């Protein structure tokens, strides 16, 4: 796998710093009440630097999904449960929890930005979240925990789509229920259907 040079790493770190700063401001003041100049001032960068990385505020929010991949990389360093099914459940619920805590009422804005952007980072199959879910599914199939009726590629897309659908439903209901609880229940139903029964 190709490694990033120091300039590429610095560019990603700057992008994530801008996104984290913007999300922090938006959680306090609301999406519409935070402008690019305010984001730049809080992040300690020029507006020129902002536009070097992003075309617009909406484009910046699309990259906001990348903050989870950064967080997931740190989480995976200390995760120890060897059971692939529990690992899969953990990753899907971990992403759900991150959305609830980090974006909360901004989640609908994130998805609106995603829909209006040409670069849809959230559905990039090369991002760490996708690769981690796929790895867990491959292990479940290899160890006979899931029926081999479906491919790892299909199950990866399916499970991520289910969780994404739950998150969007949560937005439509104006964040009025416990998202973690509902995603957990949905995963229980799905896993019960996918899992091989042992005598």
From TrEMBL:
Record bears the keyword DNA-binding: yes
PROSITE patterns in UniProt: HTH_TETR_2
Residue range(s) of DNA binding per entry: 35-54
InterPro entries per the UniProt record, alphabetical: Homeodomain-like_sf, HTH-type_Tx_Regulator, HTH_TetR, Tet_transcr_reg_TetR-rel_C_sf
Matching Gene3D superfamilies: Tetracycline Repressor, domain 2 (1.10.357.10)
HTH tetR-type domain segment(s): 12-72
Keyword ATP-binding: no
Gene Ontology MF, one: DNA binding
A Pfam short name: TetR_N
The entry's keywords: DNA-binding
Name used for this protein in its record: Putative acrEF/envCD operon repressor
Natural source organism: Pelotomaculum schinkii
Gene name as annotated: envR_1
